[in-house]
Amino acid sequence: MAGAVTSVSPSAWVAPDGRGGGQRSAPSRRGRPARDPAGGPDRPATVGWPDGRAGGGVLVAEPELRTSPLHAEHERLGARFAPFGGWSMPLEYTGAGVLAEHTAVRTQVGVFDVSHLGKVRVRGSGAVALLDRCLTNDLGRIGAGQAQYTLLCTEDGGVVDDLIVYRHGDDDLLLVPNAANTAAVVQVLRGSAAGGAVEVVDQHTDLAVLAVQGTRSDEVLSTAGLPVGHDYMSFVPAELEGVGLTVCRTGYTGERGYELVVPARDAVAVWQRLREAGEPYGLQPAGLAARDTLRTEMGYPLHGHELGPEITPVQAGLGWAVGWDKPEFLGHRALREEKERGPARRLRGLLARGRGIPRPGMRVLADGRDVGEVTSGTFSPTLKSGIALALLDPAVTPDTEVEVQVRRRSEPFVVVKPPFVRPSTREH
After folding, report:
1. Domains of the chain by range and CATH?
2. Is 259 known as a binding-site position?
3. pLDDT tens, residue by residue, 220-263
4. pTM for this structure?
């Protein structure tokens, strides 16, 4: 076997900015969010606090922020930028804004620059076997040309990061972790590969990722001359005007869409071609603020909010992304034990009965009893209502009426099972 699997303690891994975990801390059990205004890797630096102010945090300029190869393109479009996991990325665009960008993706098509996401190449004899011993999901479930959602855990079951694995072959895989956790993922995998034939290469700045998401995404890509119509969570190699790239049927919005993995040096040419091809279909550049409202409507977890060193896959309802039949993966003993006894809290959805807008860190009450905490909360542009994800006492089940403490007042909500909006990722 190519190297022993490295054990990871919850406090042993440190992200690029030096903070353990690299983003907002796991929800406090004392009723206040950890005061990290930088947010999660895919969430704006502005966050909401228990007083109910939208974006009650403060935009803090992180030192030496990295920029996307498309930064100048975003500036020309009037983008407003914010720190995301050590990168300066578009939050929203002048003349549109979060609501318009969100709506464009739900009803037509939008394009995101998500080049801040990590890219890690794992290659060499035994690459699949190594990753299968480290990551939770079972790579035996997919073949070449397919992608898989999975997690990297600590030995006590906490989550170092959640990521997508693209299996090019048995000896060649691409991982896409969250921006702030890329260095931690690389560190763990290199430790596990030490002394073997597997190479773990950090390609964070070598590749760009562009996400075309929405009901008309096929038309945009087809007009641009790119392949469309392959199965959800699969990918194909392609060429666009001499540029080699990968077209993936993946995304983080709940809509039918594609993500293009492109050499960073060619990102501008591909971006411009996509915008030209998308003009007849109303293609809207969209920032990461809209990406966050879109993923919240789907109930998709975000590391630092619904996942983290103190929030396990079992608590987050991600047991489907765990290969329970595998003999080992990092954290398998702790997760098997938690699954057997049942988690102390579960991730649920909350839908407003009134006008309350929930924010991370707000307390949730049932019959006057504190039963948990909001992990992500926003106004849903699709439902025109407040929605949230929350870690709650497992006794609090869907259809339960609860209250969220918003600006020192109690707002009525009902517990629901996400998603809040029907996904169309698999539609043709």
Report:
1. 1-338 (3.30.1360.120)
2. yes
3. 999 999 999 999 999 999 999 999 999 999 999 999 999 999 99
4. 0.86
